[in-house]
Specification:
The structure is a single chain. The chain is mostly beta strands and 197 residues long. The chain has one domain (57-194): Immunoglobulin-like, CATH 2.60.40. Helices cover 11% and strands 38% of the residues. It has one helix spanning 2-22, and strands at residues 57-67, 70-79, 85-88, 92-96, 107-110, 128-131, 136-144, 155-163, 171-182, 186-189, 193-194. The strands form 3 sheets. Strands 1, 2, 5, 7, 10 and 11 form a 6-stranded mixed sheet that branches. The longest helix has 21 residues, at 2-22.
Length: 197
Amino acid sequence: MYKRRVMAGVGVLVGTAGLVAGCEAPPAPARAPGPTVSAGVRPTQVPRADACPEGGVRLSEGLVNAAMGLRVGAVQLVNCGDQPYELEGYPEIELLDRANAPVRGVSVGHGAAGITSSPTGAEAPPGKVTLRPGQAAEVLLVWRNLLTEPDVPAAEAWGLLVTPRPGAPRLELRLKQSVDLGNTGKLGIGAWGATGR
């Protein structure tokens, strides 16, 4: 009976020692723990915001509304700087082809006159727009996609060079949807205004 108690006591001591040993802090990992990746799967990186261009503004392409050959598109300008940015009137816009060369034979005018008599928003009078950091303005582009002259090649722009205001750096915007002018030779632009007119 004495042997059983000794054996039971030894068993309790061994068990307690095992529990105490299990309470030690684990060694520090060689590197900080992180998400694990299954074989054959690459983790995706969160896209990093582009740096704000010189001048403190960035351009983006808006949607194009196309109905019966009449196109109305928008170019947005976002103040990505840390100071207010003032716009007034119309930007200067030059069209670029797929190879980044200027598109020849196209006149850029203010408003939609000579393109359509329907209201497009591009006929709104110019005014002053002040953008606080993070705010945006837009300019509307109006054109027709018509092929009326068999001897005149169709014009198509895949990029824009935009000078938002006098003295500002020119910004380039590559387009996902072309400005497909056909051979009309005309692009109308609106004045800077609030987004979503």
